[in-house]
Specification:
Blueprint lengths: L2 H7 L1 H25 L2 H17 L6 H20 L3 H30 L2 H11 L3 H19 L2 H14 L5 H22 L7 H9 L5 H29 L19 H21 L3 H20 L4 H22 L1 H24 L1 H4 L7 H17 L4 H8 L6 H4 L3 H18 L4 H10 L3 H7 L2 H21 L3
Length: about 475
């Protein structure tokens, strides 16, 4: 009797085990990050192995390839080094860190997805007048991205696609749909430059010694603004060149800007609490996010069920059980790719360092500016051959010479990595954001990545390269 048959006959048991394992990983990582119990990370790393085992059924070919590649790297490590167990354990620890961060963020997504205020705000942004629609959707994609992650693209992208259907002319409809969708996507990917609630900041600050979100935040926000206003300029120019002009929508019973207030309050209060807790605890942003976000989400859900104490209790309990029993099991495909991307990246870079350390020593003699600018361009290039940003960062990060050796701030490396991450997210036909936008736009992922965003990526890469040089010289310390 094979494993798939065993799983199908005991599906409920396996789902229950998966939920328990994932919660154990999340709690173990948070305890380790907050209290410094290294043994908790070992528990989380062992739990990762069990989770992969109980998740083997119904995986897509790409997920299976990742697992096979991970096993291959394990075999290589045993063949080439006596430190194989250390490398494997370290890679599993990094993977458990990514899983815990993912699960923490999904708590916020659960709370935001059930908020009528968020839907009202998204609808309002998608129905703006033509002259400000691009910036309003970019703003929406940016701020919603902090709260909903890729769910922001699904929400705003669906509203944008629906809004474009009002155009009767097929050509105008396609122009409008494209403009609205890339506004959402570019706003979302710009957010990955700076937000502490993204993998980009969480992962880069965890692998670059001496770096911090506080130290890199200002420069990273400028990177995001560069991409936002570049997108607006390109969109304005393209609309000006169109032979057919997009007419204003028929008069609608539009909401007011009051609809944006709940989003603004959630955004500012959450980031404010994270910043305050950082100052109180002296911890990095990521462990603070892992604890604060689930607690904040629980309070938000309780407020949504406000009324009698009985309603608050049972309504909140229902949402929590939905998350534990159903939601985290529905993320199996995403979790497997996150686990294996982190594992493969760390294992591969560690093996490269062990087997080719002498040949890589030349990197220490290169100009730090050359290294920083190269990072910006290497990541989107890797994205074109199927490497997601998580895998790219875990592969590239450990190979970058120490910031002290290069004579620069570690936060300059964070600035370059997050810029490369954003460009990869917007241009790679394999990233989740491009796949979602392509589906909504009724085009291929390759078309959405390179045709819609090719020039944006090239010009954005040039502008960000210049900005990184300036920031490294005068701002980042």
């Amino acid at each position: 009797m094979n494993f798939i048959a065993i799983y199908q006959s005991n599906e409920k048991i396996f789902k229950f085990l998966s939920s328990i394992i994932l919660i154990l990983i999340m709690v173990s990582v948070i305890v380790s990050e907050w209290l410094g119990f290294k043994s908790s990370y070992l528990i989380a790393s062992m739990a990762i192995v069990f989770y992969l085992f109980v998740s083997l059924n119904n995986l897509t070919i790409s997920r299976k390839i990742f697992i096979i590649l991970g096993i291959f790297l394990i075999l290589l490590s045993f063949y080439y080094t006596e430190e194989a167990l250390v490398l494997i354990t370290d890679s599993l620890i990094k993977s458990s860190f990514v899983v815990a961060f993912f699960l923490s963020l999904q708590c916020l997504r659960k709370a935001a997805a059930s908020s009528s205020g968020m839907e009202r705000c998204g609808k309002f942004l998608a129905e703006q007048k033509t002259n400000i629609r691009y910036l309003s959707l970019t703003f929406g994609g940016h701020i919603f991205g902090v709260l909903l992650s890729f769910g922001s693209i699904s929400l705003l992208g669906s509203l944008a696609e629906k809004g474009s259907q009002q155009e009767l002319d097929p050509e105008l409809r396609n122009i409008k749909r494209k403009s609205m969708l890339i506004a959402v996507q570019r706003g979302f990917t710009a957010m990955t430059c700076w937000s502490p609630l993204t993998y980009s900041i969480a992962i880069t600050t965890s692998i670059i010694p001496g770096s911090s979100w506080n130290g890199a935040a200002f420069s990273c926000v400028i990177s995001a603004l560069i991409l936002i206003f570049l997108g607006w300029i390109i969109d304005s120019r393209n609309n000006g060149k169109n032979k057919k002009q997009i007419a204003e929508n028929p008069p609608l019973q539009r909401d007011s800007w009051v609809a944006v207030l709940p989003l603004f309050f959630i955004f500012t209060s959450l980031l404010g609490i994270i910043f305050l807790m950082q100052n109180i605890t002296n911890l990095n942003a990521v462990p603070v996010v892992m604890l604060v976000v689930p607690l904040y989400s629980l309070i938000w859900i309780s407020i949504q069920n406000s009324g009698s104490s009985k309603k608050i209790y049972y309504g909140t309990k229902r949402k929590v059980l939905e998350y534990v029993k159903d939601d985290i099991n529905d993320y199996k495909s995403e979790l497997v790719i996150l686990i294996m991307a982190a594992f493969i990246g760390i294992m591969a870079s560690s093996l490269i360092n062990i087997l080719a350390s002498d040949k890589l020593s030349f990197l220490e003699s290169l100009s730090p500016i050359l290294i920083l600018v190269s990072i910006v361009w290497i990541m989107p290039l890797f994205g074109q051959i199927g490497m997601n940003p998580i895998l790219s960062v875990y592969l590239i990060g450990p190979l970058i010479p120490n910031a002290d050796i290069l004579g620069i701030s570690p936060n300059s490396i964070i600035l370059a990595l997050t810029a490369g991450w954003a460009l990869s997210g917007i241009s790679s036909p394999y990233t989740a954001s491009t796949l979602l936008i392509a589906k909504l736009g009724k085009v291929s992922p390759l078309h959405a990545g390179l045709n819609w965003n090719g020039w944006f990526t090239i010009i954005g890469g040039l502008l960000l390269s210049i900005w990184i040089i300036i920031a490294n010289e005068f701002i980042v310390k």
